[in-house]
Amino acid sequence: MLYLAGVVGFALVILISVSLHEAGHMLTAKRFGMKVTKYFVGFGPTLWSFKRGETEYGVKAIPLGGFCKIVGMTPQDDDVDPADEPRAMWRFPLWKRTVVMSAGSITHFLLAVVALWFAAIFMGLPNPALAGPQPAYVKVTDCVIVGATADNRDCIPGDPAGPAKQAGLRDDDKITAVNGVPVATYTDLVNEIRKLPPGSQATINYERDNSPQQLNVNLATVQRPPVGEPDGPVAAVSALGVAGPVPPPGVPVMLKHNPIEAFPATASYTGDLAVNTVQALQRIPQKVPALWDAITGAPRDADTPISVVGASRLGGEAVEHSAWEVVVLLFVSLNFFIGVFNLLPLLPLDGGHIAIAWFERIRSWFAARLGRPDPGHVDYFKLMPVTYAVILIGGAFTLLTITADIINPITLF
């Protein structure tokens, strides 16, 4: 029940965020004098509505977003009352149209930044000292999972005992070498273990309480894909029976800040988030085959995109395990991603409208400098095939991610 409540609650939070996105468009449009005739949460049949002033507000039956209707968004809009022509959006200065069209994404960014600032004070943000490759501090596991699975499941009867635990390694030991080969990071450790013949013996050098020590371990044999390639060919490899990387003893994973320190901490985390979001967008095309493989039975790559369904399931899972920092950071990441995505210069996204408006201005500027007639406005009707193609591709991708999130979801615990 707690998981289900978390899923529903997180889905509701996403819906509220999207509704605030549309409210950002509406409020800025009204502030500049544009006419807004409708503001609705959801799509489909109207469940409830009321009219205040010139705007109808309401809720529709399908809670998958929202919309607001601004009169005359393009010069080709043919449903503009002659009396409203002076207030048509396309007639307003470029900077005002840019503010209105970007207000939705700005709303998402504000939600993310404010949530981060409060998180920095009351919950803490990820410790930057733990960013990047870390020394091979380990957590010793009770067993090893033989099958080629990426699931973080508990041990079950039949799982072989963990070799590291049997040999005497403990949590927070820092492994420094395997068979005399130095390992600087946890990834180095995994790579060196994988190089050894399955089921062989390894000499492990490690540090415990800053004291160098050594022991021999009889490695287990498991089935795994190559390191960093969850969709690669599965083969028999050696396993030590440790998990990681884990932070060094005494180093907190999350750092709390006072209200003043929270500002630079929030700015730093936001910068990292921006870089990661752009990189995630760039990886989307290459992750489509992995999504299809996940639907057809392959292990789900944790780096594949997720839908609202997947995000809600992760939120529910985090609530079930009382991992509130995961809930907050998931909310932050999702809002930041939606904000950046909506600014992509593609119709029908907000970024597409902004790009066309600026293209018109630049084209007119060059025409004036060259002594040529103003080419006027872009014909949106000529762009409809491209718009439909974007909608079709986006719809297919959304269907693919939703299906993967239902059949083979990403899990945290």
Automatic annotation (TrEMBL):
Cofactor(s) demanded: Zn(2+)
PDZ domain segment(s): 116-210
GO process annotations (BP): proteolysis
Keyword Translocase: no
Subcellular location(s) of the protein: Membrane
Molecular function GO labels: peptidase activity
Keyword annotations from UniProtKB, A to Z: Hydrolase, Membrane, Metalloprotease, Protease, Transmembrane, Transmembrane helix, Zinc
Pfam family, one: PDZ_6
Entry-linked SUPFAM superfamilies: PDZ domain-like (SSF50156)
InterPro entries linked to this entry: PDZ, PDZ_6, PDZ_sf, Pept_M50_Zn, Peptidase_M50
TM annotation in the entry: 99-125, 386-407
Membrane topology summary: Multi-pass membrane protein
Primary localization: membrane
Family: Belongs to the peptidase M50B family.
Protein name, entry field: Protease/peptidase
Organism annotation: Asanoa iriomotensis
